[in-house]
Amino acid sequence: MMLEGKVAVVTGSGGGIGREIALAMAQAGAKVVINDIGASLTGEGLSATPAEQTKAIIEQRGGAAAINTDSVSEWANAQKIVQCALDNFGRIDIVVNNAGILRDQIFHKTSPEEWLAVINVHLNGSFFVSRAAAEHFRKQGSGAMVHITSTSGLIGNFGQANYSAAKLGIVALSKSIALDMQRFGVRSNCLAPFAWSRMTSSIPAETPEQKARVQRLMAMGPEKNAPLAVFLASDAAKEVTGQVFAPRMNELFVFNAMRPVRGIHRSEGWTPETIAEYALPALKPAFSPLERSGDVFCWDPV
User: Where in the numbering of this chain does the Ketoreductase domain appear (predicted)?
Assistant: First the structure.
């Protein structure tokens, strides 16, 4: 019961990874606000049914939950989501920013609408809900935020400029929250999940390599990500903030931050020509390869 007495808001918890996190937090003793608009990944078919299903499972297991169906993509809605926790359970201790949509498209065909839709839910939504909870966290001197990022942003992927930009932006947002709110006892961390879910079901599986990657993902259920989310939200992680973690089947990883890895100095300064002649050969061995998540995590999950 690592979350006994705490109240958690889990966005996008009508299914998939969000549902598993909500269930695990309830099992660990938290009262949970299930936020989900019930739409498909393309934004169609709003419904309270997914949230109601999550709530029913929690209550069947003896837990307590409330439902909110507002979209995280608007500031006023984020305040309603947090207010739902206060109205139903009297406080808020945990925010899990999990809500997400996809508008995958090769970059030169990505429309402004596809860009904004993804940024609004993932990045703006993470800011809005975190910001709505921040004042309550500050006043009570405690609080934990768990933001769902992705290796699509941390490493890279094809056809996901909008999603990748949002997910890497969430890492910077989390670090800023950790820096700004540490003095108030508030922690902020990121979790990059590996799981087969709605968010990964659109991954192409045409070539033998793609099919093999999908098979590896399908072996990883969304529930594998829940224990780390519960830990990061608990008092057991009171010294953990500003970090990025990834659970992969039975493996756990921590990611490093962007830091300079090699430098070169020239007392008389640089010209474009001397950069080409001297700096490029010196710095090039430290360049980051143009890789995708599947290139880096290329072994079978264990």
Answer: 6-202
